[in-house]
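2024-03-11 09:14:02 INFO worker-7 job=invfold-0412 stage=load source=structure_tokens
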């Protein structure tokens, strides 16, 4: 009977997400002492070992939960005070789900959708409805992720994107949903805030967040059931293809607005089929170059600020000047500074400049005390200027 009671006690401990309370520790110690009185040495040692293992496991769990910054802290680090405030609201959804592949562990930390969460701007106009999700990427063995200033930073690509049940993911992902990301590395952990059009409109369906070790969406990594619209992991895929549930508020789904949003995709003229040989080749190349990628990244990242460009150029201090080149997707990748250290981001050329436009872009990225300005000369060369606000 005592052994059964101890079993229930241990199961209760294992079901907790936090450190065991002092009362539970006391009960375990008392049970060990009771077994000692029975002079059953083997059982006594077993109980002690199990209790020690439980405490060790709780220490690991506690540390895992403690080591990540909160979504609000990450937003503050990226200089996005509006988004940081949004993560304090009741609309914010917090998670701490981790999945691993190979050398890397990805943790989904939180998400939020709604209106006026940030001053995200497209074509000179504020886009009021957006979805944001926050992930932490770390080395499974505890080694630090490379800093953005390291030569090997970005050599291992990560594609992070929301997906929607019923919509073919190779057509509807972060790239086509006006998305992008900001990223920093702090205390050996890479933090990424992704953003895209408001997918909470589709919250009456299953929503997902995929993470793969590719530069773009790899159709071979996931399975799409045309009949049910369900997206799942391809078990035969030789590479990272993690898939999280994204539990946005079903009560905020809106079928009318969702249908209107989908009409905007009609202009994209998606092909009815794709080149399977080319897709297979791209998939094999991505897996082969898993540790040798050149750091190309996905999506669009755009924004503006109430601070004028003229004010930044006049009153702030120029701290960096980086000439950048377009990748095959028509995007640039640039470095920036924040109060929590350096980061890296991508943005599409067409987002920054009109066709043939020369001079400074109307898009300005401000990270609290730092800012990035974009300039294109007559030869089409783009330069990113980094500024720091002087006190």
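2024-03-11 09:14:09 INFO worker-7 stage=emit residues=391
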């Amino acid at each position: 009977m005592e052994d059964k009671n101890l079993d229930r006690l241990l199961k209760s401990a294992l079901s907790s997400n936090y450190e065991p309370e002092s009362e539970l520790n006391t009960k375990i110690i008392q049970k060990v002492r009771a077994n000692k009185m029975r002079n059953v040495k083997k059982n006594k040692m077993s109980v002690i070992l199990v209790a020690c293992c439980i405490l060790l496991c709780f220490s690991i769990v506690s540390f895992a939960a403690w080591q990540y910054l909160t979504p609000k802290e990450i937003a503050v680090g990226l200089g996005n005070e509006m988004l940081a405030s949004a993560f304090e609201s009741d609309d914010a959804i917090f998670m701490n789900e981790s999945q691993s592949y190979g050398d890397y562990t990805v943790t989904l930390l939180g998400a939020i959708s709604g209106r006026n969460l940030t001053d995200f701007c497209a074509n000179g106009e504020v886009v009021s409805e957006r979805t944001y999700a926050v992930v932490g990427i770390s080395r499974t063995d505890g080694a630090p992720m490379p800093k953005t200033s390291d030569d090997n930073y970005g050599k291992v690509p990560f594609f992070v994107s929301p997906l929607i049940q019923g919509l073919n993911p190779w057509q509807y992902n972060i790239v086509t949903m006006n998305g992008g990301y900001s990223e920093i590395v702090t205390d050996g952990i890479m933090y990424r805030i992704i953003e895209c059009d408001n997918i909470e409109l589709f919250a009456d369906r299953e929503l997902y967040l995929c993470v793969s070790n590719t530069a773009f969406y790899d159709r071979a990594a996931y399975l799409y059931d045309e009949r049910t619209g369900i997206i799942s992991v391809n078990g035969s895929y030789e590479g990272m293809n993690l898939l999280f549930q994204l539990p946005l508020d079903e009560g905020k789904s809106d079928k009318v607005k969702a249908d209107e949003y989908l009409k905007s995709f009609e202009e994209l003229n998606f092909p009815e089929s794709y080149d399977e040989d080319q897709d297979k080749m791209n998939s094999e190349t991505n897996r082969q170059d898993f540790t040798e990628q050149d750091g190309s990244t996905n999506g669009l990242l755009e924004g503006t600020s109430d601070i004028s460009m003229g004010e930044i150029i006049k009153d702030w201090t120029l701290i960096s000047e980086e000439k950048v080149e377009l990748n095959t997707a028509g995007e640039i990748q640039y470095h920036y500074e924040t109060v929590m250290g350096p980061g890296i981001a991508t943005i599409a050329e067409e987002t920054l400049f009109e066709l043939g436009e020369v001079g400074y872009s109307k898009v300005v990225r401000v990270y609290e005390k730092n800012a990035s300005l974009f300039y294109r000369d007559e030869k089409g060369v783009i330069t990113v200027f980094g500024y720091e606000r002087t006190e």
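2024-03-11 09:14:09 INFO worker-7 stage=report msg="Confidence is low (pLDDT under 50) at residues 4-45, 54-66, 272-305."
2024-03-11 09:14:10 INFO worker-7 job finished
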